[in-house]
């Protein structure tokens, strides 16, 4: 389980040349944070999808720290100079998953900076222990602190009346719907735990037409765990925001599958000074309808 820290994670790009003015922020390259953790993001494709590797310098597990794969999406890479993004890290040395959302900035000196918020989900043995499974710089803070940071807390509980067939192992694949009518489809998963799908929300803070949006994520040890942790990001096609979910899949005594999750939504802002109002955080409970 990777140690949580009670402050915003700021990643600074290790530039080979100094003083070079950069007009457009690019995620590609090697990054290091103030704790000494390293991240490498490979080329971002035309859809905004990218992969990479993350090596953390901090951990709460006695196991040897290993380089871990990451998978993410950048919002509209060819249209925005300071895009929002999200990615999931599948820790290779623990049963935890971490998701990050943030925005890439170029400061007045031309230096590229990633301002992010994160959620870490640890695996627990039962749904009764779900309360202690998620860590974040925001979780556990008072409402006053959340207000000072500009966080707007929105909580949605998503339910379905459909019952899943009895299963001993939780499977993310399928169609989910919340009580507001939003739909999510998770497609087949490969042996590494990587999956993709689509998300159609019926609630939004924009006046633009809502469009179905792609999602991609990773499930921890898909063949070895009955109640695996997972994380995924959704790149909204109708706004400049990106959202990341992290959670765990459970099967109750009746065989009903439930995804308990916490999410971070990052809105695009015009400048680094406005980052205080960019994130939103909440919790969601997903149930299957097919």
Automatic annotation (TrEMBL):
Presence of the UniProt keyword Hydrolase in the record: no
One GO MF term attached to the UniProt entry: biotin binding
Principal location listed in the UniProt entry: secreted
Keyword annotations of the record: Biotin, Disulfide bond, Glycoprotein, Secreted, Signal
InterPro entries, A to Z: Avidin, Avidin-like_sf, Avidin/str, Avidin/Streptavidin-rel
Signal peptide segment: 1-19
Location within or outside the cell: Secreted
Disulfide pairings: 25-104
SUPFAM superfamilies to which the protein is assigned, alphabetical: Avidin/streptavidin
An annotated GO cellular component: extracellular region
Pfam families xref list: Avidin
Function: Forms a strong non-covalent specific complex with biotin.
Family: Belongs to the avidin/streptavidin family.
Subunit structure: Homotetramer.
Name the UniProt record assigns to this protein: Avidin
């Amino acid at each position: 389980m990777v140690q949580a820290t009670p402050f915003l994670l700021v990643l600074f790009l290790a530039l080979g040349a100094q003083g070079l003015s950069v007009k457009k922020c690019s995620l590609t390259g090697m990054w290091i944070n103030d704790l000494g953790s390293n991240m490498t993001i490979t080329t971002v494709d035309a859809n905004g999808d990218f992969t990479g590797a993350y090596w953390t310098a901090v951990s709460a597990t006695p196991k040897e720290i290993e380089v871990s794969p990451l998978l993410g999406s950048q919002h509209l890479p060819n249209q925005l100079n300071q895009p929002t993004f999200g990615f999931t890290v599948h820790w290779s040395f623990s049963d935890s998953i971490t998701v990050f959302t943030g925005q890439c900035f170029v400061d007045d000196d031309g230096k590229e900076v990633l301002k992010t918020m994160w959620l870490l989900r640890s695996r627990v043995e039962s749904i009764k222990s779900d309360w202690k499974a998620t860590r974040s710089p925001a979780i556990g803070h008072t409402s006053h602190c959340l207000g000072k940071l500009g966080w707007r807390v929105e909580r949605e509980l998503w339910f379905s009346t459909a019952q899943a067939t009895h299963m001993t192992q939780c499977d993310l694949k399928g169609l989910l719907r919340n009580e507001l009518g939003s739909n999510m489809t998770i497609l087949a998963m490969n042996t590494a735990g990587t999956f993709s799908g689509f998300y159609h929300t019926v609630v939004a803070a924009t006046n633009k037409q809502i469009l179905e949006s792609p999602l991609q994520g990773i499930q921890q040890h898909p063949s070895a765990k009955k109640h695996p942790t997972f994380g995924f990001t959704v790149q909204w096609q109708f706004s400049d925001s990106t959202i990341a979910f992290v959670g765990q899949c459970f099967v109750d005594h009746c065989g009903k599958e439930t995804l308990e999750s916490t999410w971070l939504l990052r809105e695009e802002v015009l400048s680094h000074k406005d980052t205080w109002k960019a994130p939103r955080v909440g919790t969601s409970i997903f149930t299957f309808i097919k």
